[in-house]
Amino acid sequence: MQKILVIDDDPGILRMIEFMLDGSGYQCLSFGAAKEGLASLDHMAVNLIITDIIMPEMEGIELILNARATFPNLPIIAISGGGRTNQMDVLHLAQQLGAAAVLPKPFTRADLLKTVEQVIGPPEPTQ
User: Fold this and answer.
1) Measured at the alpha carbon of residue 97, what is the angle toward residues 95 and 100, in degrees to the nearest 5?
2) How many Cα atoms within 13 Å fall on the side-chain side of residue 71?
3) Which letter does DSSP use for residue 125 in this model?
4) Taking the complete model, does pTM exceed 0.70, yes or no?
5) Residue 72 to residue 66: CA distance in whole angstroms
6) CB 60, CB 54: distance < 8 Å
């Protein structure tokens, strides 16, 4: 089963993404902080990172830069609702820095799954 690391400081968004992914055949591993999510990559293999951009302590842009330096082939999807800045600006910057795709909040389940499938492919069939 493909594992997706999801990082978002909003517990409601985190639960919503977990529900959307787990119910669609992906295994979701969630963290509410970028530093914790990034540290988990040292002992856990994942197929994809989905990260919010605007977060306290460590922003998603910094997470993308760190992940790219250590795991250059690990795909990343950046998500943002804009927060204190223009969402399209931060999403465009995320893509320039190595995000494979971006997704503005709010998004639908269909939007999320379409983007994930474009980046890593459909979920693997369960046996």
Assistant:
1) 40
2) 19
3) P
4) yes
5) 9
6) yes
